[in-house]
Amino acid sequence: MIHSLFLINSSSDIFLEKHWKSVISRSVCDYFFEVQEKAGEAENVPPVIHAGHHYLINIYREKIFFVSVIQSEVPPLFVIEFLHHVAETFQDYFGECSESAIKDNVVIVYELLEEMLDNGFPLATESNILKELIKPPNILRSVVNSITGSCNVGETLPTGQLSTIPWRRAGVKYTNNEAYFDVVEEIDAILDKTGSVVFAEIQGVIDACVNLTGMPDLTLSFMNPRLLDDVSFHPCVRFKRWESERVLSFIPPDGNFRLLSYHVSAQNLVAIPIYVKQNISFFETGSSGRLDITVGPKQTMGKTVEAVFVTINMPKVVLSANLTATQGNYTYNPVTKTLVWDIGKLSQQKLPNLKGSLTLQCGAPKPEESPSLNIDLKIQQLAISGLKVNRLDMYGEKYKPFKGVKYVSKAGKFQVRT
Amino acid sequence: MCRIFSSSLVRDLSCNQLSSNNLREMLESTKESLKLEAMKRIVGLIARGKNASELFPAVVKNVASKNIELKKLVYVYLVRYAEEQQDLALLSISTFQRALKDPNQLIRASALRVLSSIRVPIIVPIMMLAIKEAATDLSPYVRKTAAHAIQKLYSLDADQKEQLIEVIEKLLKDKSTLVAGSVVMAFEEVCPDRIDLIHKNYRKLCNLLVDVEEWGQVVIISMLTRYARTQFISPWKESVVENNHEQAFYESDEEKLGTPQSKPYIMDPDHRLLLRNTKPLLQSRNTAVVMSVAQLYWHLAPKQEVGVITKSLVRLLRSHREVQYIVLQNIATMSIQQKGIFEPFMKSFYVRSTDPTHIKTLKLEILTNLANEANISTILREFQTYVKSQDKAFAAATIQAIGRCATNITDVTDTCLNGLVLLLSNRDETVVAESVVVIKKLLQTQPTQHSEIIKHMAKLFDNITVPMARASILWLIGEYCERVPKIAPDVLRKMAKTFTVEEDIVKLQTVNLAAKLYLTNSKQTKLLTQYILNLGKYDQSYDIRDRTRFIRQLIVPNEKSGALSKYARRILLASKPAPMLESTFKDRDRFQLGTLSHTINSKATGYLELSDWPTAAPDSSVRNVEVMEPEWVPSMGKTKPLKSDDKFYSDSGEEEGAGEEGTGSSSEDSSSSSSSSSSNEGKLDSESEDKNSKHSEETDSSQSDKSSGHSDKKKADKKKRLQLKKKAKKAAPKERYQMHRPPTHHPLTQELWNLRTFTPKMVSSPVFVPMSSHELLHRMTGKGLAAQYHFPRQPCIYGNKMVSVQLTLTNSSDHTLEDISIGEKTSSGQNIHRFSSIERLEPGASVTVSMGIDFNDSTQAANFQLCTKEDQFSVSIQPVVGELFLPVTMTEQDFRKEQGKLQGMNETSATITMAPENTSNQALSKKMVSVANMGVVPTGEDSLYRFAAKSVSSGDLVLVSVDLTDSSSGRLTINTEKTVIGSMLLRDLKTALAQP
């Protein structure tokens, strides 16, 4: 399936190559470079490229292109999903998935890639299995290893590999048994010029951090499970229990994992926590424009809206911005043409406002298009959909674990058109 | 730190000419850490695509290293360069062959992985054998590796196809979820057309599916999609109202009335099983799984059930950019055929300014497909925003989309056209150009009274610079020149001025316009046309010259012009069919959804066509499985948690409990509590047939639970294996025969034949124990302590790999010796079991003690120290080769069979001449067994003598046969895997027989 993998950095250097079948010359990447040049921005490179006798399927992550070479028919999503999995594994092992991290750990990277694919077909991709086979690097271990000559590679087949629950290894032990769940919701919305909602929906995830001894069997129930319209689970969740009782019953993986992602049904009206009044105009003469933005809280259910950012991609002709902000501060990057206004907390009493003039390139015609505003925000201790965890029960182990649930709402792709 | 150190070194090395010498030195050093460091640097070189092939000889030496990380890195290197250095790569093969019988399943599996990844054609037979062996391994992990190896071998040598199919057939029967995905992958690669192999496994695969790992699910689902298309009849009613659900509801009645002979459609239960068992996977976190289930429903489910996939597909749009791209493409294809199912989710396809261009275009495509009379106004309002986008390519695509909406929905054609005309005064060139092109197409579809728009465009003509747009306007004016009789000649006049500086496409249209005007309005334009044709005649582009020449011949009458010019008017001014504004995804449905071919819209290598539904249903009974199918594939054994039926998602409490039990001993209370908590739920949907097979398997696996899992129970394990093997033999005698038939063409394969010898090795009591003892320590050197040793030829009680040795210690001094023992230090590597220290030995007394020495199947002397209270004496025991064996009893039949497996390299033979005393039957046997500790194998023939033994340390068989040709000479043959021992034994026996 997957024949070879090339990792390419933003300056078009191939800094790592790995072949699972016979070696394919790196000149195959020339097709990729050609397409990349045509596409301009990295995000615009199409994920599937037909390159002579080969097909290149690539993803772009953390400023690195993961380009895989395919020789015959294969579901493209299979490859894409796998490549993302590789990137996530690197992230997991090295803390970041950057070029320097990969270069510094090239041996571990190679060992990982060797275990993850056999003849181009995924072999071991579960993080807990990999970690038993190849231990993640840390300073202490590398010092010890250099002295004792012991190594990072496990000698026996990880227990998870043969069990029906490959995500958990046997014999986990903790002195503090804890289970934390983060309910994170994101509001995707498009507001039009007048502030009315064109489109809005809520997507949420429950990320868990479970450090529990032994083989605990957990059951998580919600106060209002009907809110969840479409869900996707970690493989550990028993689907039948969900279908019949709407509870999440599972033997958790060890450590951090995403238990569930969900979509809140479209019938529920989405509460938009803030409103934006904006006026951006360019004058026909004089090469200038005006900008006036006011942001205020709307439906916040008594919570404070924090970490509010407004990002505007200005038209190319905008040279500089001379603005005053009543709260927070703003920066304008004349190269990328992005205006970022960092507001911080929203208060009910004084509405933050950003006002001033824009300078345009001399002689250039007034821009036709109007830039749209991207909003970032965060509300602690609130799931904007109203989803609430009812209780968490543990079976199968005798100790009492410490349990905790945290809620947070954020702006996802939150856009205001002008 | 070490890491940083090494990576910085690697960087330095690249510019250092001497690097490879340094690395070679490091590899040849005795220090493991240095070797490891060298390998790490070499892997660094490989990763960066640097050539490190010259180090091959130095690297390959380390393939047998004990350090597992070093070994793995050597494997990485081997796989990378073996193809280039085939001869040297062969050196490593025997190491893998040894590792293939390692008790550790991870080592077995990785040996098979590497062995099969070495692309050296000469080892194909070895790979074939290794695969066959591994396919019957007890560990499902090793079997999974075998499934992968099948594909590798097939790509290396396609001639092995038939044999590989046999292995695939066997592995398809495997009940382990671990193996299922990999073997189906092998099936798809090697023999996708052998649908018949699937029949019997179809239901099992459907039932296992939820528990298979994610990647396997994708492969199995796509294979089952193809399978179902050949085996079931279409659930889609042959009707014209496919898209209309309500009507489909009443349809069966109508059909009955109209065509009484057609039976109402009843879905095959197996078809239903597949649909039912894949549906939960729509909730998978893996986007590839969701997509593959979606395509399965799209291709197999009745039209009214396809709707279930939409929600999940729309969910995937929250995933990574690349995932969005593929999913949107598939939705685009689906939305052409069934717009109904995606219409409720229309807003999910609204474009954001931050989307990459290719995503924007796809969303636009889908929105256009979804447009209908009811939602067109919403969509057009949305499009208005897009036209103003900063991304000009996207704005242009939006204009095209508007054009398509306008042609598809006649109500809005005029609105759209007006909107587009407004865009003509846009400041951006691309927008204007695109509008012109789209307007041109729209006008063509409605060629009535649009002269106003044409006039408007003619006015704009001077300001438009994009060639395509200019060409379009020229074409429009030419086509409808009779509607704008005053403007057209004027445009032509302007064009005549700028002709030479125009682009080719514009020039061609100018020539066209001139020709059309010449035909309709020759009075005004005759000279202009002549002028333009003359310009064209000397144009640089031959296209233009050709066209000019053609047009001139066609329209200007002269004596040479033939019959064609009569029809010039009809040729040039024929009414042209309006272009169809269609989706680019219109023809993509010829490919299976979710495939690479669908994405690139052309057939990819290895694409497997989805067949049409059969008109009559093939026999469905082929999928029936007998309830008690003889399962000889060892899916039990170490596979403790892998019971086929304990679906993780299943609601049956009993099954869940069983699943947890397998995961580890610590979970015992958990399983009992959870099973009790959920056992009240009924088992509703599992069929009785399933139950039966499950029960049988559960008992099997619980049995094996006891015998496996602990390394110190290897023996029990071995026995189990042995039993299984026997079972296997019964079930498929033919295959077994094939597997044991020795090949003759390549000696390397020999080793493989003996990878596992499962024949009974019953150690018997020695036939003959020589009483002679050897001196270990002379009383003079030993200061009064004398020691003699003697081999009692008994199995050692201290360890099953040791040879037992009896020491007789005599005190020949005149004082008492105290604390006689073996010193702590032993110079050689042998494992020695010491006798317990003797406290006192009176003068003149002697004592016999026994000890065990593991000689490791070599005649290397064991050196150790004999200590008394005062002194230490270095002594050594050099065993004769004959003492390194334990006698084995076996039947003649077994002997022949084992001998058959130890041919070629493992056989040594010599002609012998015997002393006359030894020729008698008894004397010969006695001579033989006195030289070596062997058991006599009874034979039916007179002149043939057979002896069998096994080496003490490794347990390998040693078979000796003497074939007397006449009274004093004959042939001595020794078959053993331990060739060194074999040849030494041969020498000893030969000399012994020659002596009286």
Automatic annotation (TrEMBL), chain B:
A Pfam family per the record: Adaptin_N
Alphabetical UniProt keywords: Cytoplasmic vesicle, Golgi apparatus, Membrane, Phosphoprotein, Protein transport, Transport
SMART domains: AP3B1_C, B2-adapt-app_C
Record's GO cellular component terms: AP-3 adaptor complex; clathrin adaptor complex; clathrin-coated vesicle membrane; Golgi apparatus
Domain AP-3 complex subunit beta C-terminal: 742-860
Domain Beta-adaptin appendage C-terminal subdomain, first and last residues per copy: 884-994
Ranges in a coiled coil: none
GO biological process: intracellular protein transport; vesicle-mediated transport
Top-level taxon in the UniProt lineage: Eukaryota
Compositionally biased region (Basic and acidic residues): 682-698
This protein's record includes keyword Repressor: no
Phosphoprotein recorded as keyword: yes
Compositionally biased tracts (Basic residues): 716-731
Compartmental location: Cytoplasmic vesicle, Clathrin-coated vesicle membrane; Golgi apparatus
Low complexity: compositionally biased ranges: 663-681
Residue numbers spanned by region Disordered: 635-746
Membrane topology per record: Peripheral membrane protein
Main subcellular location: membrane
Similarity-based family: Belongs to the adaptor complexes large subunit family.
PANTHER family assigned: ADAPTOR COMPLEX SUBUNIT BETA FAMILY MEMBER
Protein's job: Subunit of non-clathrin- and clathrin-associated adaptor protein complex 3 (AP-3) that plays a role in protein sorting in the late-Golgi/trans-Golgi network (TGN) and/or endosomes. The AP complexes mediate both the recruitment of clathrin to membranes and the recognition of sorting signals within the cytosolic tails of transmembrane cargo molecules. AP-3 appears to be involved in the sorting of a subset of transmembrane proteins targeted to lysosomes and lysosome-related organelles.
Protein name as it appears in the record: AP-3 complex subunit beta
Provenance organism: Denticeps clupeoides (denticle herring)
Lineage: Eukaryota, Metazoa, Chordata, Craniata, Vertebrata
UniProt gene name: ap3b1a
